[in-house]
């Protein structure tokens, strides 16, 4: 086993050893992993790093005067305007445990076993059965099962992804569900039904629901689907007008999600280009039946708070959301929720860019090497001073047929100037870790 350089810091060593556990048969397998104060049994799926675990319980969406919290409050206030019998229709759950089971995150939402979103390269797994939630929809079935009908789920979600100014392994979502019984859906038309005649609400499991019709699920009547679709779209258009102004242009784009049908994405025309805001649709009836309610129809949607906050406040880099710099945070202090705030850079620090090239071992090729695994190692060593990682070049040697990859790593600190010397030290640490974890040869 190759010795690691002593200059690596403790958290960096843990990251490298975690990767060694996955890529080197010589590394001793972990037996347990501690996440959020609880010990879990580790296995071949364990890929959560100490760096990612350090973001747990940050609750930026609840932090006073934080831009994510301002947007969250505006969305919650909007949905509180929908009232029934004098009370707000939507309840809010913004402190749910981010550690969920694969059943919650995938199975309960009809996400197939071979779906790409289940891949180890896409999620932070604690073990084969547990992970950090990849979307707030992971809590949908448990809340429905508890008897809730209309609710917002707000919190941090975790996905392994590329590194640039708009992507970060942790971001925040608002997801929602609204479900209605026949009496609420058709208050003045008692002859209309939610379900087709052949659907038996007393024995729902005997009905095979299909989504072959692009207009609706086979169990639903067209009238019920269209009324629910109209409510959904009106509610969401009202929300984006509340956030971006009553004159904002919008359009609906047909989409596919495993847990809704039909499904749409909402885009707005913002700063001379179309920007996707959210995904939504009519909840698959199987999800409702499995969670308990078998005689309702529901809509659901999900949106990212970072995307909205960055657009509303002109925040250029998603890493700023995690900054404790007073120059950033004070720009959002004691502001009216509807105030038009434009982020002003405190100062501009220069970038430092270093390239990293390496030859792949014979068992890997430029097409099978997992970029997200590389990004995760770089993030684990470089931390938040890594602004961007880009695949710069792929190369196959014409004679030896060896495969090579070249990445550009952009370093920039948000609160001070980095020296090239310290960047070179970190870059060297990354080189050593990459060579050890992936069995590559640095060029």
Automatic annotation (TrEMBL):
Q: Which residues cross the membrane?
A: none
Q: Name one GO cellular component term.
A: mitochondrial matrix
The record places domain FDX-ACB at 347-443
Instruction: Enumerate the catalysed reactions.
Output: tRNA(Phe) + L-phenylalanine + ATP = L-phenylalanyl-tRNA(Phe) + AMP + diphosphate + H(+)
The name this protein carries in UniProt is: phenylalanine--tRNA ligase
Species source reads Plutella xylostella (Diamondback moth)
Q: What is its EC number?
A: 6.1.1.20
Keyword annotations from UniProtKB, A to Z: Aminoacyl-tRNA synthetase, ATP-binding, Ligase, Mitochondrion, Nucleotide-binding, Protein biosynthesis, Transit peptide
Give, as one word, the top-level EC class: ligase
Q: Does the keyword ATP-binding apply?
A: yes
Family, as annotated: Belongs to the class-II aminoacyl-tRNA synthetase family.
State its role.
Is responsible for the charging of tRNA(Phe) with phenylalanine in mitochondrial translation.
* Compartments it resides in: Mitochondrion matrix
* PANTHER family according to UniProt: PHENYLALANINE--TRNA LIGASE, MITOCHONDRIAL, PHENYLALANYL-TRNA SYNTHETASE
